[in-house]
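Continuing the batch. This is chain 6 of the set; chains 1 through 5 are on the previous pages. Same settings as before, nothing changed between runs. Recording input and output for traceability.
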Amino acid sequence: MPKLLCTAAFVCLLASPLRAADTFDPANAPHVTSVQGSRHDNSAGLGDRLTVQVQGLDRVLAAANGNCRAIVLFLNGIPIDGMPPESCDPYSGTVRYFLDRDTPNDEAWHRLLGSPRGFQRVVRVSIGAGEQFSYPTLATMKLSVIPEPEFYTFVILLAASLVLLLLLCSRTTLIRNTVPPVTGGKHPFSLARTQMAFWFFLVLCGYVFCWLITKELDTITASVLALIGIGSGTALGGALIDTNASPGAQLTAQPSQGFLRDVLGETGGGISLYRFQMFVWTFVLGIIFVSSVYAQLAMPDFNATLLGLMGISSGTYLGFKFPEKRTQDPTTPPGAAAAIESSGE
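Output for chain 6:
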């Protein structure tokens, strides 16, 4: 008897035609028809409100169990989590959002705003009854990536700061080795102090650029802090070596021979490998730093191996500074002075 009932039910199922509601029709699915931003050019960015017009909003609410706050905004197919709607109006078919950055959607905003090529970026706008999928859409909006007035101010201040830094480096002892004294010329440039100034300027610019777009204040990572510490420690160690190289000796340094010769050259002329290694690694990590800030709007998180490599380069540099400093020979007749012809830290 049970087998007979199952067979009859199966035959009836095959004989009954499928209803239209049993099939998914993309043309009749809920979809976003238009978007209205809070700015005059119908664009919106962080801190603005966005009104989304939805065809079939009642069905979206039904899929979300009547919970308006469960309707998720999608931009370019990326769900913006942790940003529920401010309001839903099933009669007019509108959903309003306040575009805000928070911990759940921080990565999504970085993906949307990263690698900016202009002040605005066109993105597709859709919604979903959850973060798993979004409804079809043809609606787009202009997403404000970089605030224009603030960006121009940033560029002007950046250019002025760079010019001022270069002038100070060229005309003062900001990145020059002041110990021991020189005669007949300017103090030589210091590799360690140059590295210290290099990281200070890059980190400062990167921090302001990230804040300008994302309004984040906690963008400095532990690895970037370690890089600054390595640069500062190298400069401090080089200064201590220069100061305590030969107590009581009358030391003099060779005048500056130009920036590259000073930072890469060693006593007796020629380019030293350990200085060249430190210079190149600093330059390479600087390029990686700038690329990461531009593409991800975040400072890079260098791994421990890479930081260790930078530390080894700095340690090797400090170790080779000792033989660079030639002290006064105890057997030298009184009155004779030992001279240091070092190009700097």
